[in-house]
Amino acid sequence: MRTVAALLMAASTTLSAQALVTAEFIFESAPFPSVHASTIAETSGGLVAAWFGGTREGASDVGIWVSRRVNGTWTPPVEVATGAQPDGTRHPTWNPVLFELRTGELTLFYKVGPSPRAWWGMTRTSRDNGRTWSDARRLPNGFLGPVKNKPVRLPDGTIIEGVEVFRRLYASVGFERIGIRPAYYQAENGREDAVILTATLQASR
User: Fold this and answer.
1) Which tens digit of pLDDT belongs to each residue from 4-51?
2) Domain boundary assignment for the chain
3) 105-130 pLDDT, tens digit each
4) Per-residue confidence at 146, pLDDT binned at 50, 70, 90?
5) Per-residue pLDDT for 53 more than 70?
6) Which of 81, 119, 130, 146 could pair with 64 as two cysteines, CB 3.0-4.6 Å apart?
7) Is 56 strand, coil or helix?
8) Contact between residue 48 and residue 17 where contact means Cβ atoms under 8 Å apart
């Protein structure tokens, strides 16, 4: 099992060979056969990557794993969050999102639950660039945190993350007719833009 890290410079809306800084494996062997939903953040101590890994997506042994790039090398993956419950049961974890606050605190958002229809939001924080983490904390009911993409930080420091707000926004401008999962970002001119996932599905025979 291999996971690839591709670090891109946002030089223009059209990617070229010159935009690729480096492409490398985060790991080439790991104690899990399947990974998904990777996220990456740049901290004062270097890059930190996270993903969920386990037997398969949705299996109870799926946890959140983290690796740090130190002196040009990625550290071995470490499991930093699971779906273990006080009664001894364990649910899968889902969709980690790393986001660094201006204070330097690195926040890990993720979901826990038997399925996306029944999951809830969780978070842990790190004050040392991903080396150690706080205890897991459940987010308030009705608030999942970032589901897949990072929050948007506006020039005035305001952080926008609202799943329902974004869902209503992209529905109001017709995104549901052309794609799904908008990834919001702020362009250089201050305009708020989004990258949309589009796909054409055909039944296999």
Assistant:
1) 443 333 333 444 556 677 788 999 888 899 999 999 999 989 999 999
2) 3-150, 155-205
3) 999 999 999 998 899 999 999 999 99
4) confident
5) yes
6) 81
7) coil
8) no
Q: H or E segment at 12?
A: none
Kindly state the tokens that stand for 186. Answer: 């702020």
CB 125 within 8 A of CB 110: no
Q: Helix (H, G, I), strand (E, B), or coil: what is residue 180?
A: strand
pLDDT at 172 over 70: no
The predicted model scores a pTM of: 0.75
Asked if 62 contacts 93 with a C-beta cutoff of 8 angstroms, the reply is yes
Q: Which residues contact 146 (CB under 8 A, 6 or more apart)?
A: 97, 99, 109, 161
DSSP string, 79-125: EEE-EE-TTS-EEPEEEEEEEE-TTS-EEEEEEESSSTTS-EEEEEE
The total number of residues shown for the chain amounts to 205
Report the CATH number of the 3-150 domain.
2.120.10.10
Q: Are strands 93-100 and 90-91 parallel, antiparallel or unpaired?
A: unpaired
Q: CA 110, CA 98: separation in Å to the nearest integer?
A: 9
Residue written as token pair 């004050």: 127
Return the amino acid letter for 35. Answer: V
